[in-house]
Amino acid sequence: MSITEETTIETTEETAIEITEKIEITIEPKFDKWKQNAITVAGGNGQGQELNQLYDPGGVFIDQKKNIFIADFNNHRIVEWKYNAKEGLIIAGGNEQGNRMDQLDRPTDVIVDQQTHLIIIADWGNRRVIQWLNQKQQILIDNIGCFGLAMDKHGFLYVSDTVKNEVRRWKMGKYNNEGVVVAGGNDRGNRLNQLSSPIFIFVDEDQSVYVSDMHNYRVMKWKNHAEEGTIVAGGRLNQLGESQGVIIDDLGQIYVADFYNHRVMRWCEGKEEGETVVGGNGKGDQSNQLDSPGDLSFDDEGNLYVVDGRNHRIQKFEVTS
């Protein structure tokens, strides 16, 4: 709450109540609810390899201009859909499935450095993390069961490994080592220091790593330097039908794509149950339905983007004003 120099406040009980109410209003969640009918912002023209189509899209990245970068899994390419575009542009791969430097094999995730236009790709089928810059390629990390990617504000790259059941991080530009394990790494399992098929990941301001622990049907939070994680979503009977994309908002609320229940759920840390925020209207292709949702993202206005995998489209749920 800001007070101008001209404003004077008497310390009466009534004024105190009014000030408290104003303060409470200012700390309300920035984004709370979304329109339940989504807008298709990429794909949505059936399964295929045309520029206006997607085929089992994986990870998604939204830049500051609301351009959408998509790991187009079964088309073996990364496509960029400009804001309000009717079709995408191939920016990496797209040269058939393969392991040449100019090819990709079922990419699962992508992140983009918006200053340098550097594209970093989890090239899952080739077991490598590869970067593309101006159509020049370089392998950053090889022989890794890479699936999810994240980058923090300190210049660290995080990669989930579904084979070793762990998440490691590397300093950007320094990949000539094995990295540092920041989650899991204690064989496959369901103990608090273990993971089972970690896929999408999110890293917050404190370098805490949130991991979609797919085959444990939960989301784990590993604080920086922690020896084990805590369960922050799912983990109980019938709560999640397989966790996929995970993102965190400014209040620390956890959003997770519930793959088999065709919905996106929100958990407040410490709560035992989540709530449905979009989807949850049965499997389908209507604007209020999802079919096997995967990755999630917010733009800077709080609109929620959902990779609607089996509908081969990206759905945008606009935040209600």
TrEMBL record:
Q: Does the keyword Acetylation apply?
A: no
Q: Which SUPFAM superfamilies match?
A: Calcium-dependent phosphotriesterase
Q: Where is this region: Disordered?
A: 276-298
- Has UniProt tagged this entry with the keyword Repeat? yes
Q: Which Pfam families match?
A: NHL (PF01436)
Keywords on record = Repeat
Q: Give the Gene Ontology MF terms in alphabetical order.
A: ubiquitin protein ligase activity; zinc ion binding
Q: Which CDD domains match?
A: NHL (cd05819)
Q: Where are the NHL repeats?
A: 289-320
Question: What biological process terms from GO does the record include?
Answer: proteasome-mediated ubiquitin-dependent protein catabolic process; protein polyubiquitination
Q: What is this protein called?
A: Uncharacterized protein
What is the species of this protein? Adineta steineri
